[in-house]
Amino acid sequence: MSAETQSPSLPRIALTFATISSTAFGGGQKASVRQAVLTHGWMDRERFMDGLEISQVLPGPNILNLALYCGQRARGIPGAIAAFIGASVPPFIIVLIAGALYFKYASNPFVHGALRGCAVGALGLTVGNALELTWDERSDWLRILLVVVTGLVVSLLHMPLLLVLVIFGGIGIVHEYLRTRKKADG
Amino acid sequence: MDNAGSTVLHLLWVFAQLSVLGFGGGKGIIPQMHADATRYGWVTSDQFSQFYTIGKLVPGPTTIFAALIGYSAMPARPYIGAAVATIGMFVPSSLIMVAFDSLWDRFQASPWRSILSRGLTPAIVGLVWSSVWTISRGTTVLTLPPGSLGMLVSLGVVAVVMLLMLRTKLSTPLLILLAGGVGVVALR
To answer: With an 8 Å Cβ cutoff, are A125 and B93 in contact?
Structure first.
């Protein structure tokens, strides 16, 4: 029945991403978008997978980029605007409520302890994330070396982000380009 | 221009730069964001780590915690500061995304798509390791005296949360809240 793709209305787009952005965390967000978009026939699967890739390559939060892509593919620029509003306003309001509570209660000793504990927890998650991402690079020693050197240079020398991306991102891109060429020739 | 006006422009400028450099979903911008936000006196290192934590605790993109930095940067008009920082953080990258949409189809079969994204990845991962250092500076792992009970408890929580994240399917907010429970008891 939904083999034909059908355009959602603008409020529908905003509401879909508002629901996802105010309930889903981390990787669960992409799965939710996928389900919403494919089951309602906004676009076919191939198009969606394409959008998933683009949203990860370009700068910006993956979930917001994916929302923009889906909104734009479904309804053009107005669709992208509806998706932007849906994907960014609810998290903004939620984080503001959290922030207002933070500034009101952070000096309470129990809240203070909880916040310190939560921050340590978030640090543990970041370490785990860094390990996972590094493990994915294990097949190529030069990529591992780039990870280590970038980490050290940024931490110890406070190299500006733009320079880091140009130098170390640049080396990575050249390396990847040469690898692809070698594979094509061989 | 009055003080609030110049802070508004300053917030916009700083977060817009972070926005357009936010490759890899924005995972790599934390060290630069910390450097800017502390240099201009918008937040302390402790606050930065706690705002980052709130960003991970709430649904949606982690980088929404830019709103809290804006909130803190403009004490007299916190909601304006929060809105401006969020616009700076999200709008520029969104404009790039929308502008690229039509261009992208032309690169459909181009190998450059994967060369660019795979090529940038090691630098992003290095930046994530640097974020570990950045965030730890505002936590009790480094702010308490080395060898103190609180510092050791903090290190233990880091290790346990990391293992639970890698080995179980427990959700991000649940793990953070569990660590918060330990904090109420041991890190007051």
So the answer is: no
Establish if B30 belongs to a structural domain.
yes
Considering chain A, what percentage of its residues have pLDDT values greater than 70? 96
A83-110 pLDDT, tens digit per residue, is 999 999 999 999 999 999 999 999 999 9
Number of structural domains (chain B) is: 1
Cβ neighbours of residue A152 closer than 8 Å, sequence gap 6 or more: B126
The pLDDT value given to residue B92: 98
Alpha-carbon gap, residue A159 to B27, rounded angstroms: 16
Q: Which of A68, A126, A143 is opposite residue B131, by nearest beta carbon? A: A126
Rounded percentage of chain B residues whose pLDDT exceeds 90: 84
Interface confidence (ipTM) of the complex: 0.94
Any A CB within 8 A of B15 CB: no
Is the pLDDT at A5 greater than 90? The verdict is no
Interface touch A176/B115, C-beta < 8 Å = yes
Instruction: For residue B60, give its domain range.
Output: 3-110
- pTM for the model: 0.94
Question: Is the C-alpha dihedral spanning A77, A79, A82, A86 positive or negative?
Answer: negative
Residue B33 in domain: yes
Nearest to A98 among B58, B98, B179 (CB): B58
Q: Do B57 and A118 touch (CB under 8 A)?
A: yes
Q: Across the interface, which of B21, B96, B113 has its CB nearest the CB of A165?
A: B21
* B178 touches A at CB < 8 Å: yes
Residue at B87 is within a domain:
yes
Match 């817009």 to its residue by tokens: B16
d(CA B151, CA B125): 27
Does the residue B172 lie in any domain?
Answer: no
Q: Cβ neighbours of residue A14 under 8 Å, at least 6 residues apart?
A: A82, A83, A85, A86
The mean pLDDT of A120-124, rounded to a whole number, is 97
Q: Do A130 and B131 touch (CB under 8 A)?
A: yes
Q: Please say whether the beta carbons of B68 and A93 come within 8 A.
A: no
